[in-house]
């Protein structure tokens, strides 16, 4: 007994805490107060015990206090040490741990971001122990060994349902597909096989939302360059009973729910489907959803995966039709009746029967006969016997299970056809196999499936133990250690009882299944009779008459014998084969091509399901034996699928079931503790008192330490390591602990002294620092005050200078702005004047053009007027000449003579100058007359002059200087002259003259309007003003020339 110390770790018997199950739990000494000790265990519970009790507790080995990556390094290499190491690492979110070369994976029930390409690149090409434990490290080890040794590898993944086996398989395949280098279609096909297999082979159970209900071995093939070139999938023991029966809160296979959620309404109508709640095969467990799963999206992923694996649209549709037919078959119910005094039945709801027949391509009413009658051959005749409603239900369920099983087998074959490449011996192909198989199962009711599953686990346990021994022996051989064979109680006797010894379980089951009179009771009776003395067999009791027990390596399991033979037979009756043969679907007929080719007797002699499973398992074990194996043990931390919750008892049970604890015992049987020489010297060198020995090489020092402190047995030196029994390791640990304890007391005393001295020095130095700091603070404060004053003064001066500069710049800017505005106005004024000048010039030019046009127009009108008047004068003259007679002519001449004489007298009385003017005027008149109509002469032209005589007289009056004495005579002379020229103007002529005056007035008005418009524009054309005189002088008509 040693003194307990605060902070020390101990092993506490968990029977003293709630929920204990017999495995010690780690605890830490939190405080010691007198006789009371407070402990805190690994579950964070505080426990109060007496100090005397605490002194009796086992101390935890120093190598077990902190977690380790490899549990071989644990100081306490036992069940408690392994369980505690997994618990602490799980809380630290480290879900992977090694036990030697075995990887233990604890399901976190949440996603960790440690599986992307970054981690793949990190683990690629690295040794197993170079990085923290990871599923990628196991895959890399297998891949590297395959490349280096050109030897096939296998990775065995096992664990309970819900432990994460399927996810681990996905991660391994993902790693292999990535590191193989060339990312071809075959790699994508290998990865895309998983969604299809999960849909048709996985279901939701109480323990796992994605539980694999079959075992599979995926063999990935690599060429000489270690590039994936194909794969092959082997499947084992599909749980077909789940199709027709599910436990509460469980579901059928995923494909049914995803199909109903993901199909279009038109597709559902064509298959006569609705919702999962409407189908008996989907509603027994009253569970229709999986948390966090989008069923519709998952269905599209399945279809995409099928397309990648070369499923045609027709093949996919035919599979979905079969799935729909199975749902309709489940809704068929039978009603008991009596037929010819025999118990019989009939189908109640024919609607679903018709749907199923249509989808399977069967004629109408063929199912009812196959389900409700049984045919037998007697004397060459076929006799149909009616079946009860329960028997008919069994026949229906057998048909459904067989049809689903055949569909699953076809799907696996189709996948293999896409990804498998037949081996060529010349290509040097190697492979890595990944085995994802069901773990050990113990339920409230265990039947045929559990017996086969546990038989498979017994084989895997035997294989695992053999591999562990092999690895142990190889380790001792490498180190040059003499190895004595360790006797170990393995599970070979259980395997013999189940499948190898005479009258074994499988042989008896197969025999009873073939006997026509074989029953479950007869099978159980034979088991009791043949194995009653076997220690691994538990006979049925009076309370449990239909059950028997088997003592497996992981514990005793009781199996229900009722129905076990029917499940083992797993064959279609002849009536169901005949029913299938009537289908017009070649796709469905190919499923049963082998059964249809066999006769009734041949079908009876066909291997039972247990024999088939044993044969495939033997092939699997042979394949694994020819490979270098790696192991992954998956652990489910709790039964409630809660993230980061660790149930110690459940995990301990799984460690026991998976053989981890057996592995520990194997290691303990040998030299369980091993250290390199350097590690050993580093840990135990203080136990040597000889200082000279410490200078030797590590191997010699290690041997010296062991020989001086240990007995001659229990340890051995290898070439690189020293191997010790657990008891010898404890001796070294105790010696080291005592030495360290004695040194600790001295160290504590010196440390206390040092700490007190250090505290005094620190306080004294602190006082000095405070004083120094205060003085400095006062000086700095005064300096800062003065500096802030200078800063303020500088700021004021700078501010005033800036204000002055600002105003100066502001005035300069204003002056510049003023000059700019003036310059801008000047430029605008010049521009305005220039534009006005341009407008004036344009107006003048327009005015000139208008005047020219007007002048030409007046000239044209004047000419037209002259011509018109000449014509009118001619017409008037002709008329006068016609009307006048000669008398008028003579009168005219006489009057002309008188006028002439009077004019002569008047002319003689005028002055000489006036006379000259009259003479000139006379000449002008004659010339005008002649010019006006040169073709007629002066007399004819005179006929045209009378209507212009008024203007002529006005001119003569202005030339003469009238006087009282000659005015009358002059007037008479002019009158006579006018008479002589002709008659006064006619009324038509007066009208024409009035029209000319109106036109002249209109022209003046237009000219005035034009001048006003010009004035509005700011100027008056000087040319227009100058032209005003001539224009107005021409207003009196075309004969205005006579005025001059």
Question: Layout of SSEs?
Answer:
Blueprint: E1 9-12, E2 25-33, E3 36-41, E4 46-50, H1 51-55, E5 58-59, H2 62-65, H3 79-91, E6 96-99, E7 102-106, H4 117-123, H5 135-149, E8 153-159, H6 165-179, H7 185-201, E9 202-203, E10 211-212, E11 215-222, E12 228-236, H8 254-262, H9 265-270, H10 280-283, H11 295-308, H12 313-330, E13 334-339, E14 342-347, H13 350-360, H14 366-372, E15 373-378, E16 381-386, H15 389-419, E17 430-436, H16 448-479, H17 492-500, H18 505-514, H19 520-531, E18 537-538, E19 547-552, E20 555-560, H20 564-569, H21 574-581, H22 586-591, H23 593-597, H24 600-605, H25 609-625, E21 628-635, H26 648-658, H27 660-669, E22 673-676, H28 677-684, H29 698-709, E23 715-717, E24 721-724, H30 726-883, H31 886-909, H32 912-932, H33 937-942, H34 949-959, H35 967-981, H36 987-1016, H37 1022-1026, H38 1028-1033
Parallel strand pairs: 7-21, 8-17, 8-21
Antiparallel strand pairs: 1-2, 1-5, 2-3, 3-4, 6-7, 9-10, 11-12, 11-17, 13-14, 15-16, 18-19, 19-20, 22-24, 23-24
Helix pairs in contact: 5-6, 6-7, 7-11, 7-15, 8-11, 12-13, 12-15, 14-21, 16-17, 16-25, 16-27, 18-19, 28-29, 31-35
């Amino acid at each position: 007994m040693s003194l307990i110390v605060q902070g020390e770790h101990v092993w506490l018997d968990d029977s003293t805490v709630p929920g204990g199950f017999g495995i010690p739990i780690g605890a830490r000494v939190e405080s010691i107060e007198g006789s009371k000790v407070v402990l805190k265990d690994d579950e964070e519970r505080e426990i109060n015990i007496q100090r005397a009790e605490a002194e009796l507790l086992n101390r935890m080995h120093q190598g077990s206090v902190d977690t380790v990556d490899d549990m071989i390094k644990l100081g306490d290499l036992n069940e408690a040490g392994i369980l505690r190491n997994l618990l602490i690492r799980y809380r630290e979110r480290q879900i992977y741990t090694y036990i030697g070369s075995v990887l233990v994976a604890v399901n976190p029930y949440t996603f960790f971001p440690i599986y992307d390409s970054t981690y793949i690149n990190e683990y690629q090409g690295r040794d197993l122990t170079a990085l923290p434990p990871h599923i990628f490290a196991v895959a890399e080890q297998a891949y590297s060994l395959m490349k280096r040794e050109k030897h096939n590898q296998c990775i065995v993944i096992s664990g309970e349902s819900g432990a994460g086996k399927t996810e681990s398989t996905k991660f391994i395949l993902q790693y292999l597909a990535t590191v193989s280098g060339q990312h071809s279609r075959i790699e994508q096909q290998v990865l895309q096989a998983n969604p299809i297999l999960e849909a048709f082979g996985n279901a939701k159970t109480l323990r796992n939302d994605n539980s694999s209900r079959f075992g599979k071995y995926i063999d990935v093939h690599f060429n000489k360059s270690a590039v994936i070139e194909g794969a092959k999938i082997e499947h084992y023991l599909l749980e077909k009973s789940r199709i027709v029966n599910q436990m509460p809160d469980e579901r059928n296979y995923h494909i049914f729910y995803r199909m109903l959620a993901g199909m279009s309404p038109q597709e559902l109508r064509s298959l006569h489907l609705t919702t999962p709640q409407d189908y008996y095969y989907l509603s027994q467990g009253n569970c229709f959803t999986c948390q966090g799963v989008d069923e519709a999206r998952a269905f599209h992923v399945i279809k995409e995966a099928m397309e990648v694996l070369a499923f045609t649209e027709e093949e996919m549709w035919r599979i979905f039709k079969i799935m729909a037919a199975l749902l309709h078959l489940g809704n068929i119910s039978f009603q008991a009746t009596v037929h010819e005094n025999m118990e019989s039945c009939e189908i109640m709801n024919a609607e679903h029967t018709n749907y199923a027949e249509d989808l399977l391509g069967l004629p109408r009413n063929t199912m009812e006969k196959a389900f409700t009658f049984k045919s037998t051959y007697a004397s060459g005749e076929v006799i149909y016997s009616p079946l009860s409603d329960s028997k008919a239900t069994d026949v229906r369920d057998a048909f459904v299970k067989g049809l689903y099983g055949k569909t699953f087998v076809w799907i696996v074959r189709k996948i293999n056809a896409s990804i498998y490449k037949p081996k060529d011996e010349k290509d040097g192909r190697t492979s890595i196999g990944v085995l994802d198989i069901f773990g050990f199962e113990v339920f409230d009711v265990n039947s045929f499936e559990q017996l086969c599953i546990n038989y498979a686990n017994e084989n895997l346990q035997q294989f695992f133990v053999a591999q562990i021994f092999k690895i142990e022996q190889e380790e001792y051989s490498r180190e040059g250690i003499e190895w004595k064979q360790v006797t170990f109680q393995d599970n070979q006797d259980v395997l013999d009882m189940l499948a190898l010894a005479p009258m074994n379980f499988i042989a008896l089951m197969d025999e009873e299944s073939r006997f026509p009179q074989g029953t479950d009771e007869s099978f159980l009776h034979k088991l009791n009779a043949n194995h009653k003395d076997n220690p691994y067999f538990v006979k049925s009791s009076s309370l449990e008459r239909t059950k028997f027990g088997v003592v497996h390596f992981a514990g005793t399991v009781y199996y229900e014998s009722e129905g076990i033979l029917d499940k083992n037979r797993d064959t279609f009756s002849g009536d169901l084969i005949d029913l299938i043969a009537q289908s017009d679907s070649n796709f469905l007929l190919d499923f049963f091509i082998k059964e249809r080719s066999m006769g009734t007797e041949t079908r009876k002699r066909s291997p039972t399901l247990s024999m088939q499973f044993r044969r495939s398992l033997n092939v699997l074990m042979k394949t694994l034996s020819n490979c270098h194996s790696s192991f992954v043990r998956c652990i489910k931390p709790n039964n409630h699928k809660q993230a980061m919750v660790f149930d110690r008892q459940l995990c301990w049970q799984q460690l026991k079931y998976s053989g981890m604890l057996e592995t520990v015992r194997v290691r303990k049987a040998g030299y369980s503790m091993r250290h390199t020489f350097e590690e050993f010297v580093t840990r135990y060198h203080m136990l040597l008192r000889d200082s000279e020995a410490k200078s030797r090489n590590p191997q010699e020092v290690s041997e010296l330490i062991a020989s001086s402190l240990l007995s001659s047995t229990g340890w051995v030196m290898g070439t690189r390591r020293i191997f010790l029994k657990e008891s010898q390791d404890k001796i070294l640990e105790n010696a080291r602990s005592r030495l360290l304890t004695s040194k600790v007391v001295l160290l504590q005393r010196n440390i206390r002294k040092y700490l007190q001295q250090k505290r005094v020095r620190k306080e004294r130095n602190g006082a000095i620092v405070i004083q120094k700091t205060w003085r400095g603070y006062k000086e700095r404060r005064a300096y800062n005050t003065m500096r802030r004053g200078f800063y303020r003064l500088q700021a004021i001066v700078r501010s005033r200078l800036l204000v002055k500069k600002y105003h100066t710049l502001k005035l300069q800017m204003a002056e510049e702005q003023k000059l700019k505005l003036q310059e801008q106005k000047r430029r605008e004024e010049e521009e305005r004047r220039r534009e006005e000048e341009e407008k004036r010039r344009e107006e003048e030019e327009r005015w000139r053009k208008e005047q020219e046009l007007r002048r030409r127009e007046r000239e044209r009108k004047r000419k037209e007027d002259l011509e018109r008047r000449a014509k009118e004068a001619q017409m008037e003259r002709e008329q006068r000449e016609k009307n006048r007679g000669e008398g008028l002519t003579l009168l005219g001449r006489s009057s002309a003579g008188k006028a002439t004489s009077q004019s002569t007298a008047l002319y003689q009385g005028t002055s000489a100058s006036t006379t000259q003017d009259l003479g000139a005027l006379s000449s002008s008149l004659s010339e005008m007359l002649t010019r006006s109509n040169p073709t007629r002469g002066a007399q004819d032209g005179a006929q045209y002059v009378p209507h212009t005589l008024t203007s002529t007289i006005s001119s003569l009056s202005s030339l003469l200087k009238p006087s009282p004495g000659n005015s009358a005579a002059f007037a008479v002379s002019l009158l006579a002259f006018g008479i002589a020229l002709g008659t006064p103007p006619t009324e038509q002529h007066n009208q024409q003259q009035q029209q000319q005056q109106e036109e002249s007035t209109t022209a003046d008005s237009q000219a005035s309007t034009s001048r006003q418009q010009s004035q509005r524009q700011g100027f008056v054309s000087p040319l227009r003003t100058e032209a005003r005189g001539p224009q107005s002088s021409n207003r009196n008509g075309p004969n205005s020339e006579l005025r001059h």
